[in-house]
Write the structure tokens for this entry.
Amino acid sequence: MTDQSSNQMWGGRFAAGPDAIMEAINASIGFDQRMAAQDIAGSRAHAAMLAATGVITDNDAQAIREGLLTVLSEIERGEFQFSTALEDIHMNVEARLKEIIGEPAGRLHTGRSRNDQVATDFRLWVRDQLDAAETGLLALIRALLAQAEAGADWVMPGFTHMQTAQPVTWGHHMLAYVEMFGRDLSRVRDARARMNESPLGAAALAGTSFPIDRHMTAEALGFDRPAANSLDAVSDRDFALEFLSTASISAMHLSRFAEELVIWSSAQFRFVALSDRFSTGSSIMPQKKNPDAAELIRAKVGRIYGANTGLMMVMKGLPLTYSKDMQEDKEQVFDAADSWMLALAAMEGMVGDMTANRESLAAAAGSGFSTATDLADWLVRVLGLPFRDAHHITGSLVAMAEGKGCDLPDLSLDEMQSVHADIANDVYSVLGVDNSVHSRQSYGGTAPDQVRAQVKRWKALV
Ligand code: ARG
């Protein structure tokens, strides 16, 4: 008989229990208890299938399935005693099931292994997170669309190199982020479709001699199909890596926007006012209203990239099939998922609440010679000059205005004509920022009509 101190799940060949340090490095229960609901769902599906295929009796399956619900409610109520000696969530649940229902609990693990079990649980967990990310992204996109619609014709400076480039519209800028988060959404959906295969029944690595029905468990757990190769099924963590890389790209988008909000909410820019709900004060400087949520979103990205790189490193040298290294997949994914969901929610809240400062945006839009390109285009269109010449003439006019400390529309017609004699009075019409943005009617351009058309297109999609 097994020595009492050896492991009750796998201790048959062991005379003694593990060293305390061995137990500490080996146990995953401290974190994988987050997959309890998925573990129990997988086991309930497995038990039903074992009965349907005649591997265990209906009575045993029923006892197992009901007992598992009792275990789940104990866990949900916080009454469950997790044991490090029982290593992980899989063995903790099974051991408790045995206490509750007795002998039939020992039949649950027929035709499966912890290798396919953990792969199944983790897939289910990641799939839930992809669904949560989809919800979060949709909410954020809708908040951005509301901003875009309200400010479809509000002018602001567009930047390249962080230097004033050309006037754009607020709505257009918001829609740029809609495109980014829209791509994130499509990556989430792609990843979900690709990962939705069931590893359950791959058993330890080779499949099983029991007449199991993997299609049945796959269907019960909402998978599209069983994974087609048992070796791959237990050793694949692509689904977690795709989750992390999708999260990384999305977090990069969140961070770029967060950076803009930090800049825009500063006293030097005053492009936006963030709401009190998404700002904090300083304990020493009474005037301060800090964009902490934006800063933290910017910083959370580091953890998400770290998780992505970390799991890539864990996986890169592993021979087929399962190795214990793979237990290190979870904490990073848990942390990245928490960070991503929180960042999405915080960004949605900030965007929903923030107020664009129309006057500051317009004032900034008109400064910095932002309509110089419009002037050059006018010289091409009206005077028929080659663009290169028009560019040069405009450059001279910008230098003149800069020397006088004024903007382009402030130059007199005489001053303009001193650079090119044919410049006429109607040039002033293109130097205004409103005319500038209204003229950019090319598909996907910044003109208010284009912005409204894109808002409409997106609203039909989300
Ligand atoms: N706790 C383990 C993990 O997270 C479960 C699988 C253990 N499998 C094994 N053959 N020891 O990966």
About this structure: The mean pLDDT is 95.
